[in-house]
Amino acid sequence: HNGKRRKVSHSTNESDGTGESAAAKIDISTFTDSNGAAATYSAIDMIEYSVWGFNYVTVEWNHTAPDEIAVLKGSGIIDWSTAGGNVDPKSTGGTGDVQFTTDGGAYGAGYDITIHWRPKAA
Description:
The strands form 2 sheets. Strands 1, 3, 6, 7 and 9 form a 5-stranded antiparallel sheet that branches. Strands 2-8-4-5 form a 4-stranded antiparallel sheet, with no helix packed on it. It contains no helices and 9 strands. The protein is mainly beta. The radius of gyration is 14 Å and the shape is globular. The relative contact order is 0.39. It starts with 6 loop residues before the first strand and ends with a strand.
């Protein structure tokens, strides 16, 4: 979904046994906020997920020291929408892109992750 104010990004993975490390899933620089300004950060409203065969999947904002959004295990929904979203703290360095890192996956491990989010401009 690519609405003017809200976005939905869906990612799936079936592992070949190598896993992912800081794999960019949302490139914030390719979006604009609701006023048409270039996005520089984001607010995550909700994550729906199913993770199997991995110990967990870490979702982070890309900064010099990545800022954790969530650690996903099993299946579930994390909803920050009533609190205004989980907002990127805009730490030093990096891009603010949303990235995934998997842990402990073997061949056939996988995930299905849907992120409901809003692009924001400084």
